[in-house]
Structures are given as structure tokens and as C-alpha cells.
Queue: 2 jobs
Job 1
Amino acid sequence: MREIFDSVPKLVVNLLTAFLIYIFGNKVFTTISARLGLTIAGIQVVPLINAVVLLSMIYFVYKCFGEIRDIAESFGKLIAVNIGGGVMDESEVKDYSSAMRGILYAIALTALSYFFMDVLNGVHGMLAGLAMVLIVIMVILLLFQSVNALNRQFTALGKQAADQILAEAEKSAKK
Amino acid sequence: MTLEDHAQRILTPLAIIALVIALISFFGMVAAGNVPPKVKELPALANAVGTLNATLTAPIGETNMLAVLVIAGLLIMILSCYMMSQRFYRMVEEGVAAMDIEYDGNVVDDEEASEE
């Protein structure tokens, strides 16, 4: 619980900072440079600004993913505690954390790709296409990993329920 | 550290960002020649704006003065954003450390399970 209180505000701050850099970098600095055709030593300033904005956004987004991992692990523990009736074991925590992590990462990647595409397009058109393909593959892999983890836990829960029903049926048959 | 101190430390980089954006926008406006007509009516002000325009647009080799200012402004803005996030981090960490959260679940590790 403490981890959630610690990580959620940090995640919001990192996202807002990345957004602030994106908005000002793209809407103010790039616009002025493009309109006036600014150059430094013969190099166009617009791709330079986009590269700097991209690097700083990557830094803040990288920090976001660290916080998302912490939040996913905390949620995984909470789910494991609630499903296990106050008791949790390592495999449950690991699977639920992994599932939450995959889902949250997939959502974050999809949302962030919108901002990154714009900036990547400013640096080089090919980079945007390459990044899009990579993001799609990563999202599919992450969702596959999440579904696998949930599948393991649901199979175990189903088996546990079936065992319980069978045991009760045996008990009632003996009576 | 009190909440006021934290707020002050967070708002300072934000003010720097606002100042940088305002300055770069102003320089961009002057360099593009988008000056309000009333400025041109005042000779002293029109002269000052003309000098600033000439300075900003004067090429130094293949470099514009304004291009250097834009890049410097961008770097200052990113640095201020970084400072702001770090200060916010500290505020959150201090706030969470002061919280009294009780964990409401039992953790059963392997050793305890085998003992039982």
C-alpha cells in the first residue's frame, strides 16, 4: 500500500514533465525554428530540437516505467491477498504482478506512442515507422505474457475449486 | 521541510520555464518582424526593436543568433523540468515516510509454512 502512495504521484509527475517538454518543445521551440528557418553551423535546428526533446522524453518515460513496475507489483500483492483470503504465496504474487505489469505497460506504451510518433517523425520519418512496428510487437508480447500468467492462476484456482467440490461430493456420498 | 518550502522549491523551476518560454516567444516575434503597429509609432521603441531584430537575425557564419538562444532556452527548460520533478520526488518521499500505513495481509513464506 505504501508503494502505491509513493509511486502514483511520482508516475503522474514524470508523465506531466514529459508532456510539458513535449508541448513546449513541439509547439514553441520547433514552431519558431521552422518558421524562421534557423540553422546552427549549416544544420537545421528543427531535427536537433526534436532529438533533444526525444532524449529527455525517453528519460522521463523510462522513470515512469520503473514506477509502473512498482505499482503493478503492489497491485499484484493486493489481488493475491484478496483472492487468497488474507494469505498469499510467492507464485500467486509473481503471476498477478506479472499480469498487472504486462497490462499497465501495454496501456502506457500505446498511450505514449502517440506523443513519440510526432517527435520521431520530426527527427526522421523512418524512425517513426520502425518505432511503431517495435511498439506493436512489444504490446503483443506483453499481453501474451499477462494472459499466460493469469491463465496459470485461473487454472490453479479452477483445480482448487474442483478438488473442493469432489471432496465435498465424496463426503456426502460416504454419509 | 514544510509544505510551503516544498511549494516554493517546486514553483521556482516552473517560473524559470515560464520566463524562458516568454523570452523565446518574444525574440521569435521580433525576429519574424511581427511587431504591433503601435510600437512602430514610437521612434525610440521602434529603433530598439529594429536593433534587436538585426542582432537576432544577423548570421554568424552559418549560425543564427536566435538559433543559439532557442537551443539554450530548450536546454534550460529541460533542466528546470528535471529539477522540478526531483523536488517533487523529495516531497512525495517525505510525505510517504510520515504516513502511518498498516499492511493488512499475511505473508506466508516457505519456512513458516514448513514449520506449521
Job 2
Amino acid sequence: MPALNDLYRRYGDRAAFYVVYIQEAHPVDFWQTSSNIREHVLLNSTRSLSERTEAAGTCAVRLGLRLPAVIDKPDDVVERAYTGWPDRLYLVDRNGRVAYKSAAGPFGFEPGDLERALKRALETAERPSR
Amino acid sequence: MRTGARILIGLVVIYGAFYAIVLWAMCQPPSTFGRFMRYTPNALVFGALPAEKMWLWARAGHLNVGDVAPDFTLPLLHGDTAVTLSSFRGQRPVVLVFGSYT
């Protein structure tokens, strides 16, 4: 998360950044992990928009999240369209096309690759249109 | 057939079945997979199987670089407004960070 805050600080004036808060990866009622128990990150799975909004708010405060966040609806339509669970990074270019898609988390969280793609997208965007 | 060979074949069949079941679970919706992992020894999944490779394959998704990003309108965490992805078209690139607290 510090790496994402840092990207947002450096590129936030030229690109839009959003956390898409989706269903929990390791809720207490499904698949609890020992690291979450150690860090007291204990949340039930979120079944309504208000539960999910509350979880996102807690997350943003405790992790010191600077990026704006949107909340995926309980039907998980956006998560499914992007295969976003449990976590994943995307870059959408100015033409509305996918310019970068990370591998599925937790193995694919590489902010360095995202930054390279973002630089390329910004360079393309700043050139005069054909 | 010698007993050794029988045991070997048995082990291969058990391993194959375990591999197939875990891969099936990885392809299911998150809550189903979560419930599966809750009752499966995690050390066995991560220790005995190429779990990372299987996961990346199972969760590769259908969206590829160059595809039109599916449009959405979702409520913002702070404030009463919503964000529509396509409103940035022609304006600026958009970084999307999918994730949750846990």
C-alpha cells in the first residue's frame, strides 16, 4: 500500500487512481489466515453495500490509504468482469482500453510494472493526436 | 503386479485427484474457494502442489491488454457521488487497484 500511495502522489495530477473495494479475501467466516489473526484484521464477508463501505472505510484508515476508493456492489459484477479478486492492478488508457493487467494476487502485485505502463500511457497521451 | 508398483500407481492417482480438485476449487467463485480452503490443509495445498502456477492459471480472467475495459459506475467511499470509468475516456489514464482489507 505505501507503494501505491507513492505512485498516487507522483502521478495523481495526470492520471486517475481508484481502489475498487471488492469482497474480502480472507473473511473470518470463510478462510481466515494466521497473518490476519496476528494483525487483528478480522472482518466478516461483506454482503451488503453498507457492510462493504464500512470495511473499506476501516481499511482506508488503518492502512493510511490516500487513493480515493469506490465500492463494488454486492453482486460483484465489476470484480467478475475484471477477475479482480483477491487483488489485481489495472491501467486503462485514454482510449478506454486495458494498457496493463497484473497477474492475480497475491502473486501479481507489482507496482513497478504498473508504473512503467503508466509512464508509457502518459507519454502517448501527451503526444498530439494523429 | 508387485506391491511396490501398486502403491506407486495408487499414489499417482491420489495426487492427480487432489490436483484436479484443488484446481476446480480455484476456478470457483471466491466464497466457494474460501470455504474449500477453510476445510483443506493449506500446507498440503501449498506444499504438495504447484499452487502458485495453478492459481495464476485459474484466475487469469478473460480481459486482455488491448481490450476495451468494461465500463462501470460505482459509489465513492467518501462523498455521495459515483465514479463512471468511461467519463475519463479521452481525458486521462485510470489506475484501478482491486482489493480488500483482508
